[in-house]
Amino acid sequence: MFKIQTLNNISRNGLDRLPANLYSVANEVAAPDAVLVRSADMHKAPIAASVKAIARAGAGTNNIPVTDLSARGVPVFNAPGANANAVKELVVAGMLLAARNIADALGFVRDLDASGDLHHKVEAEKKRFVGTELAGKTLGVVGLGAIGVKVANAAYALGMRVIGFDPHMTVDGAWQLSAEVAKAGSLAELFAASDYLTFHVPLNDKTRGAFGAQALESVRPGIVLLNFAREGIVDAAALRKGLADGRIGRYVSDFPEADLLGDPRVIALPHLGASTGEAEENCALMVVDQLRDFLEHGNVRNS
Ligand code: MLT
């Protein structure tokens, strides 16, 4: 019997793939054989010596001490691409939220006083929410992996011009693009040409602060910055400076930051990129299959 510890809620359909005659699954487990995790930070507590594998029901593994585990011979399985569609859809929503002032407009309607002439109140105020269209604007995509490619295609379908940068982009990756993605020669070139800029890279030593003081020097004034990847990819000091002097027009992110709460130029969501029933199920199924293959047959896939 394999003992599996779950550190987050994992999709039921994924857990159902673990047959009860072979697996016991619980939140609190003494000496687990494996851990199923989503975003819980595993850097904070020691990982039991009994653990033979970690399964991350998502793409990013920065919440897991992968290097230490590798040294112990413990594979970390993840689910690249399994939630890419969900993230793509939220990035499109993020661009629209910014372009059409949707968050502010919703706040205005929510706070309307129902008494009196509602129609008149709306007509008097709606000018404040006049937006811009995405069609014809340029989206810069940093990272053309599973998510970046989908975002590029969706933006193209909305009539945007798309430019991309990914030092690792292969011919195999490129065929998935239906968008005519012009390849920027450098990040500075991409920053300078973008009206909207979105990051789809993992957080690591190479990408931390990928948007920093230098990047800020090359952006188009009023650029809309989207971060649905990881906090830390956009340098906090550069972000604050850019928002203060208007070089960054809007910051749309999937990570609320304490000192930006309440800033009208910031639209922040509570890390919802992968939070759809479909994505949660896809991720859970993908990693549970890998985990079973490893625990039952010793096969290591995608670690
Ligand atoms: C990911 O890296 O895929 C996301 O952070 C998934 C999640 O929200 O759990």
Automatic annotation (TrEMBL):
It is an enzyme of class 1 (oxidoreductase). One of its GO terms (molecular function) is phosphoglycerate dehydrogenase activity. Its EC number is 1.1.1.399, 1.1.1.95. The keyword NAD applies. Pathway: Amino-acid biosynthesis; L-serine biosynthesis; L-serine from 3-phospho-D-glycerate: step 1/3. Keywords: NAD, Oxidoreductase. The keyword Lipid metabolism does not apply. Transmembrane segments: none annotated. It comes from the Bacteria. It catalyses: (2R)-3-phosphoglycerate + NAD(+) = 3-phosphooxypyruvate + NADH + H(+); (R)-2-hydroxyglutarate + NAD(+) = 2-oxoglutarate + NADH + H(+). Catalyzes the reversible oxidation of 3-phospho-D-glycerate to 3-phosphonooxypyruvate, the first step of the phosphorylated L-serine biosynthesis pathway. Also catalyzes the reversible oxidation of 2-hydroxyglutarate to 2-oxoglutarate. Belongs to the D-isomer specific 2-hydroxyacid dehydrogenase family. This is D-3-phosphoglycerate dehydrogenase. The chain holds residues 1 to 303 of 388 of the full protein.
